[in-house]
Amino acid sequence: MNVWGTVTWDIARAGGFAAYILLTLSVAIGLALTLHWQSARWPRLINSEMHNFVTLLSLIFTGVHVLAVWIDPFTRFGWNEVLIPFASHYRPTWMALGIVSLYMGLAIALSTWLRPYIGYAWWRRLHVFTLVIFGLVLVHGIATGSDTSTWWGVIIYGGSVLLVGTLLWQRLYWPANAQSNAHPVIAMLVLVITLVGTVWTVLGPLQPGWNVIANNGNGSGAAIGVPVTNNSAAKSSGSSNNSFLPSFTGQLQGQMTQSGPDSNGLTTLQLHMTILNGPQGTVQVTLQGQGQGGDDGGLAVSSSLVTLGGSQSAVTYSGPLTQLNGDRLWHMTALLKGTGASSQQILVTMDIRVSRNSGQCSGTISGTGSTSASGSNI
Description:
Blueprint: H1 2-34, H2 48-71, H3 79-83, H4 92-113, H5 115-118, H6 120-127, H7 129-144, H8 151-173, H9 184-203, H10 210-216, H11 232-237, E1 247-259, E2 266-276, E3 282-293, E4 298-309, E5 315-319, E6 321-325, E7 329-338, E8 345-354, E9 360-369
Antiparallel strand pairs: 1-2, 1-9, 2-3, 3-4, 4-5, 5-7, 6-7, 7-8, 8-9
Helix pairs in contact: 1-2, 1-7, 1-8, 2-4, 4-7, 8-9
């Protein structure tokens, strides 16, 4: 599962960025055509055939991206979440922008085949929406992608905005064709939107806490929760502990923080996560150990603690990890004991992916009532 999850995740990321880069080139070539960037001194590389070919490649890689996201065992998206706007359990608003842009792109691609029937004027009007698609995909990638805060992610997004923005500004403010009208007001509007988008990116998606904010758009990180309360134990005691019994599954979203090394040379990692699509609650994983140094920033874990809290954030179960495997995708197992007078135990299994650049973490969790667990404590 770990290997397969890594493969599908990397394909989804690579397919998304490839589709975005090709879309950027497609829009840039289209704007260059309207600016009549041609010369007798070089071959006519900038032409409609090249524009159509790059656009087709962009759609193909978009399909690869969507398919990889759907089959990824880590995210576990359903077809409705992939194809219906706002149906996603993960960052629904920003996922919706990508879905809408996909349908708009398919519509514009279809209009190219229907051009002999709808006429050149309508085809050209529809093609203007390509700029809207570019904007939607840009925001979708920045707000949803896990690589936004990487140096190469910033270069890709920043370079594409600079390229398309410069060409669009020239097309609107200094049209090369004498028959084309200048639109200085729209050009200024484009500049304002670009500046606002840049500020939003710096203050939003590039900030460490964006993962929780983006999940449901209101900053709490809790959404679509389906509390498991249809069991007799929960009804009889009213304890928040019993919302996790006899078993539960859910998805995790949160943030990782790092502190240290302390006077003993120990580094501490803490994963603060919210449970979604399951019983309402929180999970905190604390790992402590000697930093291994190097570029990967590894940690030789010597002690650990997992706490499971109810909807009121009170700790209801706690215990150490009994298993910890993986690098970019952590597989964790822990036997948690009820706090206070409770003697109940839960065997919890988690698969967690952490972005080492932004500290954002997401994954899945499952738990079952148990009285014992194998493996040594970590």
